[in-house]
Amino acid sequence: MSLVQTLLRDDLRGFTGYASARRSAAEGRVWLNANESPWPNRADREGVAQRYPSPQPAALRDVLARLYGVMPPQLLLGRGSDEAIDLLLRAFCRAGRDAVVIAPPVFGMYAVCARLQGAALIEVPLHDSDAGFIADTEAMADAALASGARLLFLCSPANPTGAAVPQEAIHTMLDRLAGRCLVVVDEAYVEYAEQPSVARLIDRYENLVVLRTLSKAHALAAARIGCLLASAELVAVLRDCQAPYPMPTPCVELALAALEDDALSQTRERVAIVRRERERVRAALTGLPGVRRVYRSEGNYLLVRFADADDALQRLLATGVVVRDMRAQVQLGDALRISIGAPTDNDALLLALRGGPG
Ligand SMILES: *Cc1c(COP(=O)(O)O)cnc(C)c1O
To answer: What is the band of 358 on the pLDDT scale with cuts at 50, 70, 90?
Structure first.
C-alpha cells in the first residue's frame, strides 16, 4: 500500500467526495446540468460569476506550479493555506486516535484544526537560545515515531519566532519519518527568507508536504488563495475531501493578474524593501531602552521582548499603531510581534516607542 493510503483515515479509503457538475468531462454547448441561472446577474458586468467555477482552475494551477517548481498535479489550490491545514487534519487524523506534532510557540491554526478534528496535539517546544528560537527537529521526529503521529508541522520561517529550519534538518527528518508520518513544511514567509523553498524535494520524499500562500508577499490576503504541494497521489486524495467549488472566479482572476510578469517583479521589489526595513527596524529597536531582545527573523515580522510589554502596547495604541500581542503564548510572556510595514509605518512605530513616558 502507498504511503498516502497507509496514513489516510481508514474510513476514507475509496471515498471520492461530491460529484460536482464541473467534474463532468462533457464538452457542452447548452449547459443545463447545475441549476444555474441562464443569465448573468446585472451586477456581474463581465459575467464571471454566473456558472459554478472549475474546482481547480487549470490556468492558475499551471502558473503557480511553474512559480513553485512542481508539476501541476502536485499542487492543490485552496482557500488560503489555512484550508490546506484543515484538509490534512481531516484526511489523515482519526478523531480521538491520531496525533499531530507541533513546536510551540507557533502559528495557531495547527492547534485549532487539530482541536476541531479531535486529534491529539503533541508539543515539542522551540528551544530559546542565543541563536533564536530553534526547532528541536530530532526530538520532534522522536515524538512523531513514539506516538505514531500522522502529521508533523514545521513552520519555516517560523511565525512568530522568525527562524527558518535548516534544510539539512528537514532532510534528516524526512528520512527518519519515511513511510510513517507526513512532514508539513509551512512556507508562508519563504519569499522573505535566505534559504529557498523545499518544494523541489517533493519528487524525492513522498512524505513531504509544502504549504505556500499568496496572502503575504503577494499581498492578496483577502483573495484567500493558498497552495499545498505534495505527491500527485496525496493531492488527489485531499481534492476528494475538499469543498466542491473552493476557488471563487473573481479571486482566481485577481491571482492570475498578480502573477503576470509586471506584478511579480513589483512583488519581488517589495519583498526586497521589506527585508531591508526588517533589518533597519531590528537595529533601531535593539538600541531602545525597555527592549530586552529582538529576534532575528527571516519573515516580514519581528518578535520583540520588552521589559514592560504592556507599556509598549499602550504607547503604540495611543498613536494608532497596532501590533500583535503574543503574551498568551508559551515562552512569550513579555513579547509582541511587529509586522514590517512600509518605511513610513515603521517610522511611526519607532517614533511611538522612542517617545518619552506617556
Ligand atoms: C499567515 C499564515 C498562514 C495562512 O495563510 P493563508 O494562506 O492566508 O491561509 C499559514 N501559515 C502561517 C505560518 C502563517 O503565518
So the answer is: very low
The DSSP-derived string for 200-255 is: GGGGT-TTEEEEEESSSTT--GGG--EEEE--HHHHHHHHHHS-SS-S-HHHHHHH
What is the atom index within ligand 1 of the atom nearest the CA of 224?
8
Grid cell locating 87: 484538509
CA gyration radius, the chain: 22
Instruction: Kindly tell me the sign of the dihedral angle through the C-alpha atoms of 324, 328, 329, 333.
Output: positive
For residue range 72-95, what is the model confidence (pLDDT) as tens digits? 999 999 999 999 999 999 999 999
> 25 pLDDT band (50/70/90 cuts)?
low
Indicate if the pLDDT at residue 335 is higher than 90.
yes
Report the C-alpha gap between 353 and 285 in whole angstroms: 9
Q: pLDDT > 90: what percent of the chain?
A: 95
Query: Which protein residue has the closest C-alpha to ligand 1 atom 6?
Result: 80
Nearest to 198 by CA among 68, 61, 64: 68
**Pocket around ligand 1: residues whose beta carbon is below 6 Å from it?**
80-82, 107, 155, 159, 186, 188, 213, 215, 221, 226
Give the CA distances from residue 164 to residues 135, 155, 174, 222, in Å, rounded to whole numbers and listed in that order: 9, 8, 16, 26
Between CA 152 and CA 143 the distance in angstroms is 10
Q: Cα–Cα distance between 111 and 96 in angstroms, integer?
A: 14
Measured CA to CA, the distance from residue 129 to residue 57 in angstroms comes to 45
Comparing CA positions, the residue from 93, 115, 315, 81 lying closest to residue 216 is: 81
* Pair type for strands 120-123 and 127-129: unpaired
CA-nearest residue, atom 12 of ligand 1: 188
Ligand 1 centroid – CA 50 distance (Å): 30
